[in-house]
Design a protein that fits this description.
alpha/beta, Nucleotidyltransferase, domain 5, seven-stranded mixed beta sheet, 13 helices, disordered C terminus
């Protein structure tokens, strides 16, 4: 260990979240999934020796955790002692271009999603996360595009009315910004240009199990199946935006109990039992709303940092990884080790 690392270890308190985070997970096992990202790691060819992939992945997580741009992350890696201890990067740190390229490589190889799952498994093995959720709570939120359009469209989708009966997703297919995948959506009196971010959280402890991103004008009712966790839950809870005969049929076909809110139709009010069912379901939905609250307020994820749907989905995946890690370190108190 270098003199700088020894000094950092002496100065940074063991109650620091990043110090806790470095201890609760076997990061070496996580790092095994990153081997082979570069040709140099396989056969020693391909140009200059790259930075250690696990250290780079940890740095990328910190960028999302603290909502830092690539230049800001580069600077933080140079001056913050807890960043140095957590990542293992000391002395010469990767520049902003290297950090950007690594993040894009993670997305291209789908390693962001793989590591999201692997970290969830690691948290399950140490008992900080339930292994199988009996219920999954699904919802969506608006993520504004990183590109700010100067023009709005006169005809745009209305939230919860986007595609209830027919597929009209092409009605506002013209974009007015550099982001080719973002779309307009009107919610209440406000118009948004961007995406919808879908998450599925476990009913028991609120960890995020699945992430999915679509253009903003995509109807929630069409995204329920794609938002289901990979591990089949016993029951799925969702609000009225997901109500449809097809969705209820899909859940039955998968052997999943239906926890979708009942929706009144024109000329027919909800029955007593439907209203009672809705009250019971509504009590379960707070946990996904808490998750969105933390993602937006704690991790500053109201606006995307990148353009295109794939990059926004990758960013949400990284934010969800940070969210789950934060929940884990809030659950555990580490014994101080000399």
């Amino acid at each position: 260990m270098s003199f700088l690392a020894c000094e950092a270890k002496a100065r940074v308190k063991k109650e620091n979240k990043l110090i806790k985070l470095s201890k609760i997970i076997d990061w070496k096992k996580i790092g095994k999934h990153l081997k082979g990202m570069y040709a140099y790691e396989i056969n020693g060819t391909g140009g200059q020796k790259p930075y250690d992939s696990l250290k780079m992945y940890k740095a990328i997580l910190l960028g999302q955790w603290y909502n830092l741009s690539d230049p800001e992350l580069e600077e933080a890696l140079e001056v913050r002692l807890d960043f140095m201890l957590f990542t293992g990067l000391e002395g010469e740190v990767p520049d902003e271009t290297t950090l950007c390229r690594f993040r894009n490589r993670l997305k291209e190889k789908n390693l962001d999603k793989l590591l999201f799952k692997e970290i969830n498994l690691a948290l399950e093995k140490i008992g900080l996360k339930v292994k199988k959720c009996s219920g999954a709570v699904i919802d969506a939120t608006i993520i504004e595009s990183a590109s700010r359009p100067k023009t709005t469209v006169e005809i745009m989708s209305l939230d919860r009315k986007e595609e209830d009966t027919t597929d009209n997703s092409e009605e506002n297919d013209i974009t007015y910004a550099k982001d080719p995948d973002a779309r307009w959506l009107k919610k209440g009196k406000k118009c948004y240009f961007g995406y919808k971010g879908f998450i599925a959280t476990s009913e028991e402890d609120g960890y995020i199990e699945k992430v999915n991103v679509t253009p903003a004008n995509r109807s929630e009712v069409k995204e329920l199946e794609r938002s289901l966790p990979d591990k089949k839950p016993e029951r799925v809870y969702a609000d009225k935006g997901y109500t449809s005969k097809d969705n209820r049929k899909m859940l039955r076909s998968k052997g999943i109990k239906d926890g979708i809110l009942e929706k009144a139709v024109r000329g027919k009010k909800l029955s007593y039992w439907q209203k009672k069912k809705n009250k019971l379901i509504s009590r379960k939905r707070f946990i996904v709303e808490q998750a969105f609250g933390t993602l937006k307020r704690g991790f500053k994820f109201t606006r995307a940092a990148y353009i295109t749907r794939e990059k926004v989905e990758s960013q949400l995946t990284l934010k969800a990884t940070c969210f789950n890690l934060l929940k884990a370190i809030n659950k555990v108190k580490l014994v101080q080790v000399n």
